[in-house]
Design a protein that fits this description.
homodimer, 331 residues, DNA-binding
Chain lengths: 331, 331
Amino acid sequence: MADVAELAGVSGQTVSRVVNGNDRVTAATRLKVETAMKQLGYRANIAARALATGRFGTIGVVTFNLSAVLNVRIVEAVVTGAQARGYSVSIAVVDAPTEKDVRAAVRGLTDRAVDGVIVIEARVLDTPHLQLSDEVPLVIADSKAAHRHPTFGMDEAAGARAAVDHLLELGHATVHHVAGPAGSNPAQRRRAAWQRLLKRAGRAIPPPVVGDWSPRSGYDAALRLLADDSVTAVFAANDQMAVGVLRAAAELGRRVPDDLSVVGFDDLDFAPFLTPPLTTVRQDLAAVGRRCLEHLIAQIETPAGPATAAGTSRFVRPELVVRASTAPPRR
Amino acid sequence: MADVAELAGVSGQTVSRVVNGNDRVTAATRLKVETAMKQLGYRANIAARALATGRFGTIGVVTFNLSAVLNVRIVEAVVTGAQARGYSVSIAVVDAPTEKDVRAAVRGLTDRAVDGVIVIEARVLDTPHLQLSDEVPLVIADSKAAHRHPTFGMDEAAGARAAVDHLLELGHATVHHVAGPAGSNPAQRRRAAWQRLLKRAGRAIPPPVVGDWSPRSGYDAALRLLADDSVTAVFAANDQMAVGVLRAAAELGRRVPDDLSVVGFDDLDFAPFLTPPLTTVRQDLAAVGRRCLEHLIAQIETPAGPATAAGTSRFVRPELVVRASTAPPRR
DNA sequence: GATATGCATGTTTGCGTAAACAAGAGGAGC
DNA sequence: GCTCCTCTTGTTTACGCAAACATGCATATC
């Protein structure tokens, strides 16, 4: 910076002003400084700026298991949005979704250099008022709002309701469920909504089979489920497991949708091209990511800002997409 | 830091020594400092450290399209490995894979604070000796080595060869190809290898149909391809497109594998559970990510280090997984 | 024409840390 | 018993930038 200042014949402070948007600098001096910067290939040292300002221009994202499509979509939306707003994004992946690990990851991130943190799927059950960090604004992307931090997510119950209602309206006596893992909030909420709906409709509530989101677990679950001939409708907690269910049905000679109706959740890009095309619940996860980001940046840039973003709807409603894997029961 | 030093009755420099691993500090003073740190909740300011050392403890990753499963797997491996080595990871997503955009992203990252950069799939064709940055070590994850930076990737040709050989050995007269997008190196290399193999085997080389990796594009491509009754074998450049091919075959009444053999590429988790289970080429992308990271960190930590990692194999060999979507032709 | 006002620019200072150098204490070797 | 060396600890300084304050000049106001 000193070199630039000297070459341009101004003070370092003026260079700083030119670099940091338009304070009040004459067009002439601005030009001088800019040409000097270009000539010297000057690039600001972000560490020094951070040290001087106390801000980093970076937000952190904590997630489990990047390879879960669900999480990646949110991360992508956050990264894209953050770039557009001039922030960069640091990512931390946590192995186990325990409170300890998450907190450690958040600390790792704040130890590093972030102005705010987004935690995807806090997953820490039995922690009514989780306080992950008080050093830095923190937003949670999850479908459960029982945290002390602003939370945005999907309306899982609405999604599950759409799926179950659809199957009941088709005339199925009840709906079986292949649930997601016990530690996952979305899984718990989908399962709870499914159960609540059956109860309200006065239907039998068969024990759910628990999977781990993977196609294999869906396959295994369906193998068990379909041992019972009376099963006519299965609601899988995600599309991947639904793939496994379809496979198991094919192997057992149960035709979908004639003998068995299947509904997934997520509407992954392959869902329309399965055999048969999968009826599923579409989630706009990018919207969740964007909302988290907006809220976080608002908190960062106006620290006294909107404490909880009252007024903005916090849970995005998913939408049922009916394809060819569901039909009325044949008997 | 000053507070800690005062409380512990030592100098700031001694605190610094305790914080940064074991220089040479008496066990007694170390203990004093550590208790003082704990008591005051001291946490080092990373911006100040970066300013003083010129190092950031962060590596940057540039990628297109995080939602491509392929890329995510690499990113995940990089993030996990980086964490284990004490680095954090910043991610930049580039819209268009042009040289200009990539270079801008790399600059954006280095403008920020990274000690090194990994670019996933450089994709800049017609740039024989791409020089993305000379300010910072840079490693490319791609299947084409014509860059001026160290490159690690898959042996795409070997993968394609395994797929095509498998189909030819089954007795198919030739193999049709649903290719990936023109701008993608892996797509180009898979396509080139497919073509080369058919030529070497003296088979007809049907014009490939180009998709964009999505299931939909695979579906569209297969619809066109299967208009020709003589098509008995299709090699899709990835599993997603293979899903579309399977769907198109089902709609057109072509049974797989009896009437039509299909091979994919990637071995995504749902591949074994498609109808029929998909024969495909398994790629260990995590290994690619790990190698990139190792090489990058080596360059960062020993700047004069291994200029091109001579000796380590740079391209991971994929492996054919035969399932039920391939069989000898019936006629 | 003198004073007030506003705006562009310069000067000083501090952000929190680690590197380089300096100093002191203790022990080994002769 | 003296010198020399080694090991621990302290002191000084620089990293590159922006905030706060200071200056000086030009214009407006009466």
